[in-house]
Amino acid sequence: MSLDLDQTTTETQTATVSKAGLSAKQRMRRHKALVYTLRVVLLVAVLAIWEISCTYLFDDFYYSKPSKVWNQLVVWFTQGTSSGSIWVNISATLQEAVYGFILGSIFGVVSGIILGRSRLLSEVLAPYIQALNAIPRVVLAALFVLWFGLGMTSKVVTALVLVFFPVFFNAFQGAREVDRNLVNNARILGASRWDVLRSIVVPSATSWILASLHTAFGFALIGAIVGEYTGATHGLGLLINTSQNSFNAAGVFAGMVICTVLALTAELFLGALERRLLKWRPPAQSTGATAV
Amino acid sequence: MSLVVLDHATKRFMTSSGGLHTAVSEVSLTVEAGEFVAVVGPTGCGKSTTLSLISGLEPPSEGTATVAGKPVTGIPDGVGYMFQTDAMLPWRTVLGNVAAGPMWRGVAKDKARDQAREWIERVGLKGFENYYMHQLSGGMRKRVALAQTLVNNPSILLMDEPFSALDVQTRALMQNELLNLWSDTNAAVVFVTHDLEEAITLADRVVVMTASPARIKDVFTINLPRPRNVEEIRMTPEFIAIYSEVWQSLSSEVEIARTTGANRVA
């Protein structure tokens, strides 16, 4: 939610307290309830339009519809899929994405910070990194399946490559934007080069890095799915591919729904990590206003 | 042997347009242990560069800088530096920031924290050990910076307009605090400011610098008795006499800086 939106609500709250006899807290709770209600209404409306239009207007063989997607999900979770239990497939995709995410983030952070601190190295490598970044990297998935086979490795590597670049660029930027004043002060206080790196460069790049991790997990999931789509024995990408090949639009949608749930769950964890690591940061203006 | 010796030190910088800018020219200055020297000059004349030369953050282009008998190559032992803007680590608490110096210098964590606690108390921040920087006021942050610098027991304290961002009352408070804390040490202080009143109030000697490039124009000895109360000393006739004497010297430089500044704008 944006800042000014929150501020206007606070103002209207104070203005209406005397009139309606409600405390600011009650108003806030009502506002929240309204937002959540409207969200549900929106979702239901979209699903209903889809359901109705595909029942009466369009061909649900191509476009599917929510009830069919739901049935597909029920079948997958109760009777299993064409390639084994749904849980086996979910865990395959999740493992590939998580390993790719972790490895890609580590490589990205380390090389971003090294290049961010070394001017010579970054100047030498800059055109090559730009070139690598310009490659549409999803096509590498095909190459990786050739190299590493149908197993997990090829998907982990695809996810790794996709994750690496956004994390690398943010870590690089973060390491370069370190406040010179902080570094000078630390050096005067007795910090060695290593101390400066550990106590100043890494923490100040952290907020940049964390920001990139949100998009990076999405990329990891894309890498895993595309890898599976290209060739695999298990995974959500394979399920989607099989569904497509058997003209099962509901299966494609059902695969997407599961991916979305995975991505949102990961987002929750990353959000918690971010709050934990950045607890030193001043709170956003809106919460400050509520505290008063 | 003087503690700090600048001998015909000159500092030039490459400007972004490729030209050379002389920030400091032929500065010769000596500071003894336990002496408080204030450097005044028009804003932007290159006073801060003088401090960088002593601290080893910038090597002189010509001439030499010597600290405790050794030519300055890296950062000399015993130097403390308080910057104009806040330079504490925002992701560390007050305690973590103050303990940083000793820990970087190899003191064990527990001991460093004990030393830090002692200094936090001495600068009047007891009870704020676990606060983060954004939770403190401007004056409190200056206190943290002071504790962070003094916990290393510097023999030379370099200060670059440390109180310029504070309001008048807080500034006077911090000046008194600084004089109190300094009087317990035998540290040499080089205090850069554009505020002549602050310079005379605090210092044993006031060095007046010219408008850019900075040269030493005059040096005045301030014989006001210590201990001083910064708010009261300003009203004494002795203070006013010295002030007008130094202002004679400084005002023409301020005038020059203003004209060139105006030309640059126009």
TrEMBL record, chain B:
Gene Ontology MF terms: ATP binding; ATP hydrolysis activity
Keywords, in A-Z order: ATP-binding, Nucleotide-binding, Transport
- The ABC transporter domain is annotated at 4-236
Q: Pfam families from the xrefs?
A: ABC_tran (PF00005)
Q: Which PROSITE patterns match?
A: ABC_TRANSPORTER_1, ABC_TRANSPORTER_2
Name of this protein: ABC transporter ATP-binding protein
